[in-house]
């Protein structure tokens, strides 16, 4: 996914990781704090932000049992209470994934942990709570200070919670047979359980359980959108922020069933397409082997639609007590409890920049094959409809200036299909079905020449200008590249808006 940087750049990143760890150790004090949760006591540590603001860091708090063995692919279970004090002074390992810097398969199945950051565990007045759901295409991402540090939040009276959840096939495998009890969306159920944990425990960290905001970016925004649609979370939070993503784009696919059998065959399965047998086989496989193979289940049709993640959200094939998506997202949006709460949605001004490499591949393939079809970008609901030809022609009229789409035009078409069109549909749905609830729109358009943006560099290198997908994260969270900025700088002012 992030393979567009050279060897020297990757070496620079590895050095940056070590430098960041060193700086974080320097900003860690010897002072600790113990807080009581519903499952037991946790011990955190006082740290300093890059602006020397003190705060307490409680990292690696379990919100569920390890999803291993019989719990692999299944809904998460509440953690088992512990005796004594649990050491929560450092983050846990990320979920199994291909590391965006090293390119190696890393992480652990035992990944259901969250981090709590607060500058006062016993304030005079409870603080607003913000729950962050990271992005990464549902197949990468982690809740660590390397990517999502709390430094800027800790300058305010806010309790920040960052959560980890299962990724890829481990988080989204779906089987149709009810006896398997694997209907899919386990990762979304991880998030539901994490939000319940925050609701029940945030007061112990100085947070206000009646003032909770869930927010996310890209795939994290898609997940946050699901959280405000499912009945599982009703009343657990009070505001939502969706940054460059909704639950409407390519996530909700129809082809989840065949992927399980396809993956099993790739891993060496010799049996028939029987859900129970496939599940038994997949449970015996190493987690990293499954994650390494899952990309090979993508079909040519998937790739034509710019689908890069094979295991994603789905409508669950049968009801369970933990069911998150019982019917299509567009239907859930009409009657969701979240229609009654405030929503902030938006995007960056140059979202399509992130698709530059993919657009180059599409353009070159089209030129080689003399195939300029835009059908893959027609919305799913009409893709097989007799009107699809007309929709394709309208797309061509709006987005293509000549006979062949240019790289710039392909890039914009992908952004339209994946981001802008779903966002537009979300706004229309809110105006129709949630007319009484506040709806706020934003566009982020500040392009700094001084502030490096990690995801942009990993996807595109350092040469392109513009405000790309994910750039705003550098003004919300501290990360590997963050440093103390002059307070008169535009970057500092943007961070503190």
Explain what this protein looks like in three dimensions:
Its EC number is 3.1.1.-. InterPro entries: AB_hydrolase_fold (IPR029058), CarbesteraseB (IPR002018), Carboxylesterase_B_AS (IPR019826). Residues 32-493 form the Carboxylesterase type B domain. Pfam families: COesterase (PF00135). Keywords: Disulfide bond, Glycoprotein, Hydrolase, Serine esterase. There is one protein chain. This protein is α/β, with parallel strands linked by helices and 497 residues long. The protein has a domain at 7-168 and 186-245 and 327-356 and 439-495: Alpha/Beta hydrolase fold, catalytic domain (Rossmann fold). The chain is 33% helix and 16% strand. The chain is built from 16 helices and 13 strands. The chain has helices at residues 7-26, 145-148, 168-172, 186-201, 219-229, 256-266, 275-284, 287-293, 300-304, 329-335, 356-369, 380-383, 388-399, 407-433, 454-460, 490-495; strands spanning 28-37, 40-48, 54-62, 85-87, 97-98, 105-106, 113-118, 127-133, 159-163, 207-217, 239-243, 343-348, 439-444. The strands form two sheets. Strands 1, 2, 3, 4, 7, 8, 9, 10, 11, 12 and 13 form an eleven-stranded mixed beta sheet that branches. The chain has a two-stranded antiparallel ribbon with strand order 5-6. Strand 8 (127-133), helix 2 and strand 9 form a beta-alpha-beta unit. The longest helix is centred in the last third of the chain and has 27 residues, at 407-433. It is globular. The chain starts with 6 loop residues before the first helix and ends with a helix.
């Amino acid at each position: 996914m992030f393979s567009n940087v050279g060897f020297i750049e990757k070496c620079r990143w590895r050095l940056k990781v070590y430098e960041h760890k060193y700086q974080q150790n320097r900003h860690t004090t010897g002072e600790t704090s113990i807080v009581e949760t519903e499952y037991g006591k946790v011990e955190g540590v006082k740290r300093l932000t890059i602006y020397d603001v003190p705060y307490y860091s409680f990292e690696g708090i379990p919100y569920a049992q390890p999803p291993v063995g019989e719990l692999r692919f299944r809904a998460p279970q509440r953690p088992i209470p512990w005796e004594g004090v649990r050491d929560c002074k450092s983050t846990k390992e990320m979920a199994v994934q291909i590391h965006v810097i090293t390119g190696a398969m890393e992480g652990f199945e035992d990944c259901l942990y969250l981090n709590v950051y607060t500058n006062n565990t016993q304030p005079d007045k409870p603080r607003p709570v913000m729950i962050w759901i990271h992005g990464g295409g549902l197949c990468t991402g982690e809740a660590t200070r390397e990517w999502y540090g709390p430094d800027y939040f800790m300058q305010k009276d806010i309790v920040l919670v960052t959560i980890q959840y299962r990724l890829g096939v481990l988080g989204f495998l779906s089987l149709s047979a009810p006896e398997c009890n694997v209907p899919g969306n386990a990762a979304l159920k991880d998030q539901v359980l994490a939000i319940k944990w925050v609701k029940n425990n945030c007061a112990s960290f100085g947070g206000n359980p009646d003032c909770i905001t869930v927010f996310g970016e890209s795939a994290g925004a898609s997940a946050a959108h699901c959280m405000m649609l499912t009945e599982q979370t009703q009343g657990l939070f009070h505001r939502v922020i969706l940054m460059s993503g909704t639950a409407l784009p390519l996530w909700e696919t129809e082809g989840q069933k065949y992927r399980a059998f396809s993956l099993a065959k790739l891993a060496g399965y010799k049996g028939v397409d029987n859900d129970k047998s496939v599940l038994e086989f997949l449970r015996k496989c190493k987690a990293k082997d499954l994650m390494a193979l899952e990309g090979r289940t993508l079909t040519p049709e998937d790739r034509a639609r710019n689908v890069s993640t094979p295991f994603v959200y789905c409508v669950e094939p049968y009801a369970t007590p933990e069911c998150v998506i019982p019917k299509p997202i567009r239907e859930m949006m009409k009657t969701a409890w979240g229609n009654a709460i405030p929503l902030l949605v938006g995007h960056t001004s140059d979202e399509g920049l992130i698709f530059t490499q993919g657009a180059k591949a599409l353009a070159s393939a089209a030129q080689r094959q003399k195939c300029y079809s835009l059908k893959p970008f027609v919305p799913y609901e009409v893709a097989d409809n007799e009107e699809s030809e007309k929709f394709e022609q309208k797309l061509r009229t709006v987005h293509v200036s000549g006979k062949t789409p240019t790289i710039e035009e392909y890039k914009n078409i992908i952004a339209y299909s994946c981001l802008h069109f779903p966002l537009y549909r979300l706004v229309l749905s809110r105006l129709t079905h949630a007319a009484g609830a506040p709806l706020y729109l934003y566009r982020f358009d500040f392009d700094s020449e001084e502030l490096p943006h990690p995801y942009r560099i990993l996807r595109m290198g350092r040469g392109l200008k513009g405000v790309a997908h994910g750039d705003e994260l550098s003004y919300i969270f501290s990360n590997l590249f963050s440093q103390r900025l002059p307070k008169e700088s535009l970057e500092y002012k943007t961070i503190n808006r």
